[in-house]
Structures are given as structure tokens and as C-alpha cells.
Amino acid sequence: MENEESDSDNLVSVGTKQRHDERDVDEAEQNPFTDPLARVRPSDYLRSRCPLCFGGEFPQESDGNKSATDRRGTLLVHIHAVFLPEQGLDAMEKYMDVLRAHKLPPKKTKTTQDNEEDHIEGGLCVPNSVLDGCESGFTASDERRAKASTQFFDDTALMALLCHHDIVLFLANMCSTGEKQHYVISLIEMLFQHLLLKCRLGILYDIGCQVERSCVKWGFLD
User: Fold this and answer.
1) Which residues contact 102 (CB under 8 A, 6 or more apart)?
2) Chain CA centroid to CA 161, Å
3) CA 92, CA 87: separation in Å to the nearest integer?
4) Most buried residue among 42, 78, 119, 166 by CB atoms closer than 10 A?
5) pLDDT of residue 61 exceeding 70
6) Residue 222 near residue 189 (C-beta atoms within 8 A)
7) Residue 46 contacts residue 194 (beta carbons within 8 Å)
8) How far does Cα 44 stand from its chain's mean position?
9) Could you give the CA distance from residue 46 to residue 59 in angstroms, rounded to a whole number?
10) What is the pTM of this model?
11) Most confidently modeled range among 76-80, 118-122, 125-129, 192-196
12) Are strands 168-174 and 157-162 parallel, antiparallel or unpaired?
């Protein structure tokens, strides 16, 4: 990944701080991502990845008649520059396990479950019955369901974060049998590191409803 020192002229002068969790957890179990820096524009890295999305400049070409849409495909970045470090992914998984352990929901009786079948949690837009049906109907939404064997493969899959123009921004190398949520949360947290503090971010994900439910329930992105 590119050195962010070139971004220094685009950062608002604020003191960097480590994100502290109010829960009584040790340093190793805190969010591995620090609070994002205050910026006046997206990072140089994002601007170089997709100038159309993040307002960067296109590479100069000898043919001045090419449109911006044609020129965006000429940018080449080595694939290793976009991978999230494995130790960061492991730290995020441990951090999310801590959040789940500190916010265990109370055990419900069958009567309570029946009464709350169509209850809408927090700021969600659909009732529990719909989310539960999605969770049971899609393989990707079940973290415990094995989709690949770790007996024969050290790496089981890749998870990518793409911009609106299908350009890879970040990649996570998956080493688990299931599609665990710490991969997508790590990708989103990494994107936050390169964006303005105040921005509206839209994410399309096949099981995005389950990720949103977990964020509301456990506070993963708080």
C-alpha cells in the first residue's frame, strides 16, 4: 500500500488517538483500527485507485482524445498492495469475539420468541422473522458452516472490497472454513481509514442484512 505521508497536506490538524472501548478489556482485545484521521479529501491511495470515485487525477497519455472513462482502465497497481495483513484480521476476530461475549442476549423462552417473531430490532428496517429466514437460507450467512476445507488448503477464499467501477480497493485473504464476519468488518474499517470523517457510505453485500444486524446488536462499527 502506498505511503500516506503524501497526504499530510490534506489532513486537518487534529491529535490522533487510539479508539478506547469502555468495556474492561486488555489492550490486545481493543479495536485494532485506530480512529480515522480528519481529512479534507479521500486519501491519495483511494484517489489513485479510482479517480472517478474519489476525485484523483488520471494518468497522462499521448492520446489526448481519450475520454476519462477510457483512461481509468490504464492504472496498474501490484496486487500485493491491496491485501490486509493477516495479523490485523486475527486481531479483529478476537476483538469481535470480546464484543459478543460482553453483550450476550438474555435467554428467551419459547413464548417470548413467538411474541417477538416480527419484532424490529434497533434501527433495522425488517423484522426478526425475515432476518432469521435469510440467515437459515443462505450458506454465506452461517459463519459456522464449512464452505472449504482447511485440511487441504491454507487459504480458502478471497474477499474483495470494490468501488462503484469494480476496481479492487482492498483484499482479505480468508483462512477459515466459513465466511466469518470479521473479514467484511475489517475491509470496511480499512476503508474508513482513507475517507473523510463525515461521509455517507453505501455498501452492497449479498448478506449485508446480517452484517447490519450484527453491527446493531454487537456494536462492531461503533
Assistant:
1) 23, 25
2) 8
3) 9
4) 42
5) no
6) no
7) yes
8) 19
9) 14
10) 0.72
11) 192-196
12) antiparallel
pLDDT at res. 130? 81
Alpha helix locations (H) across the chain? 44-49, 51-54, 68-71, 86-102, 110-115, 128-137, 181-192, 208-218
Calpha distance 24→33 (Å, rounded):
18
- Phi (first) and psi of residue 68, to 5 degrees: -65, -35
Buried b (16+ CB within 10 A) or exposed e, 209-218: bbbbbbbeeb
Place of cell 489492550: 27
Residue 45 phi, psi (nearest 5): -60, -50
Cα 173 from Cα 150, distance rounded (Å): 13
Q: How far apart are CA 58 and CA 180, in angstroms?
A: 36
Within 8 A by CB and 6+ apart from 133, the residues are none
Residue 206 has which C-alpha cell?
449479498
N-terminal to C-terminal alpha carbon distance within the chain: 26
